[in-house]
Amino acid sequence: MEITPIAYYRGPLGSKFGLPRQASLVPGLEGRIEFVPPYNVPDALRGLEGFSRIWVIWGFSESVREDGSWSPTVRPPRLGGNARMGVWATRSPFRPNFLGLSALSITDLDFSKPSIGVEGADLSDGSPIYDIKPYLPYADAFPHERGGFAQSAPGSVLEVYVSPAAEGVFSEDKMSVLRRLLSLDPRPSYQRDPSRVYGMLFEGRNVRFRIIDDKLEIIEIV
Fold it and tell me: What is the pTM of this model?
């Protein structure tokens, strides 16, 4: 079966580095789903105004391996990257078909484009969207079921500080979102070098930061 994108996601994070590892972990992280021909038909959105959340099936476009290879086991960041789990027990992007599934909040609908405003996405800018379905609370929510090694949402693990050189670049709202993103620790589990300076694309700018122990400092935003 061949599938083609019906839309693309447009958001503030320009690469997979720094993305929240699950959807809805960062309230206020806003983006848009912009439809492409022949799927940019306003009638296709009819009735969606009655829903507050959608399921989005999308592609891990930055994780596709050219040779199509995949691994039956992966190292989940939630386990510190030290234990292997079966790929079907994880949400790793390194899957046979590289498909992601996210439940996103709807912020607005634009029937003239058409497009859907969403919040809390774990997608990078330009990610292809393959399908959209409405989220049904009575059928899709099972809060008391077992969640394996990820029973509860991860909390902030880093204190975030902003150097004087990085202040005033973003609005207060955008800086709040950036702080929340960084507090979740965007580093791969195998990188813990305190001398390393990291860079993350956010709102078209390179956010440079370093981490020592449990403190993260935003050095500059260029």
Answer: 0.91
Question: Residue 211: is its pLDDT beyond 80?
Answer: yes
Query: Which residue, among 190, 180, 188, 185, has the nearest Cα to 213 in the 3D structure?
Result: 185
Q: On the CB side of 41, how many CA atoms lie within 13 Å of its CA?
A: 6
Amino acid at 84: R
CA–CA distance from 185 to each of 77, 92, 104, 129 (Å)? 10, 17, 22, 26
For 25, 40, 155, 203, the CA distances from 152, given in Å and listed in that order, are: 11, 37, 9, 29
d(Cα 126, Cα 205) in Å, to the nearest integer? 16
At the topology level, CATH places domain 7-140 in Elongation Factor Tu (Ef-tu); domain 3 (2.40.30)
H or E, element range at 10: strand 7-10
Domains in the chain: boundaries: 7-140, 159-221
Residues 127-161: tens digit of each pLDDT? 999 999 999 999 999 989 998 888 887 777 899 99
